[in-house]
Design brief:
The complex is a heterodimer of chains A (about 120) and B (about 110). By secondary structure, chain A is mainly beta. Chain A is built from no helices and 11 strands. The chains are: A mainly beta (about 120), B mainly beta (about 110). Chains A and B meet through β9 and β10 of A and β5, β6 and β10 of B.
C-alpha cells in the first residue's frame, strides 16, 4: 500500500524556537496533504489542507503565521511551528491523498510528538 | 458538512469475546467510509474501507464492517478479539474530497 513518511517522530525544542516537520509520500504523488493535531485521548483536529504549488487552507482558529505550511512538490509537505511555546506541545499527524484516487482513502504518516520545554 | 458519531468513547471487552464499535454519519449522499486504528504514539492505519459494491467489507486483523445506507451506519465488528487489538479506533467519512473523523473509540481488551 501507499506509504507516507513523517519525520521526525519525536522532537523536543526550547520555547521560542521553530520546528519543522516533514511529510513525504514515498510511492505515490499526493494531490492534497492534510495536517492534523491530536490532543491526548481525543480525535484528530484538522489544522490545514495544502495543495501542491498553492497556499494552504487553514481551519478556523489555526494561526497561519504560527503554523507555516509549504507544499513544494507532489511528494513533500512541511509544517513549521514558529516560535513554539509549551501549549504547542502535541501530536501532529499528516496525511496524503493520491492523485489517482483523490476522493477515497487518505494515507497517514506515523505522527510527530512535539514537546516544547 | 458531515458529522461522524462514535457513540462509545470506551469499550472494554474480554479476550476472545466479540466486539462491535458503532459509527453513524449524517448524510449518505455519495460518501466513502473508513475505519482506522491508532496504536499509542503512532499514526493511523487503515483497517477497512467501503467505496461501493457489497455492503459487508472485510479488513485486516479479522475486522469487518457493514454499510447500512438507511441507518447511515458503518459499524465495525470482530468475532473474537485479542489483546493486541487494544487501541484507538476512528471512523471516517469522505465526502466531496473532505475527510471527517469521529471522536474515536478506545477499545481495551481484558485478559
Amino acid at each position: 500500500g501507499a506509504v507516507v513518511s513523517q519525520h521526525p517522530s519525536r522532537v523536543i525544542c526550547k520555547s521560542g524556537t521553530s520546528v519543522k516537520i516533514e511529510c513525504r509520500s514515498l510511492d505515490f504523488q499526493a494531490t492534497t496533504m492534510f495536517w492534523y493535531r491530536q490532543f491526548p485521548k481525543q480525535s484528530l483536529m484538522l489544522m490545514a489542507t495544502s495543495n501542491e504549488g498553492s497556499k494552504a487552507t487553514y481551519e478556523q482558529g489555526v494561526e497561519k503565521d504560527k503554523f507555516l505550511i509549504n507544499h513544494a512538490s507532489l511528494t513533500l509537505s512541511t509544517l513549521t511551528v514558529t516560535s513554539a511555546h509549551p501549549e504547542d506541545s502535541s501530536f501532529y499527524i499528516c496525511s496524503a491523498r493520491s492523485i489517482q484516487a483523490p476522493n477515497t482513502e487518505a494515507f497517514f504518516g506515523q505522527g510527530t510528538r512535539l514537546t516544547v520545554v | 458538512a458531515q458529522s461522524v458519531t462514535q457513540l462509545d468513547s470506551q469499550v472494554p471487552v474480554f479476550e476472545e469475546a466479540p466486539v462491535e464499535l458503532r459509527c453513524n454519519y449524517s448524510s449518505s449522499v455519495s460518501v466513502y467510509l473508513f475505519w482506522y486504528v491508532q496504536y499509542p504514539n503512532q499514526g493511523l492505519q487503515l483497517l477497512l474501507k467501503y467505496l461501493s459494491g457489497s455492503t459487508l467489507v472485510k479488513g485486516i486483523n479479522g475486522f469487518e464492517a457493514e454499510f447500512n445506507k438507511s441507518q447511515t451506519s458503518f459499524h465495525l465488528r470482530k468475532p473474537s478479539v485479542h489483546i493486541s487489538d487494544t487501541a484507538e479506533y476512528f471512523c471516517a467519512v469522505s465526502e466531496f474530497s473532505q475527510f471527517y473523523f469521529g471522536t474515536g473509540t478506545s477499545l481495551t481488551v481484558i485478559p
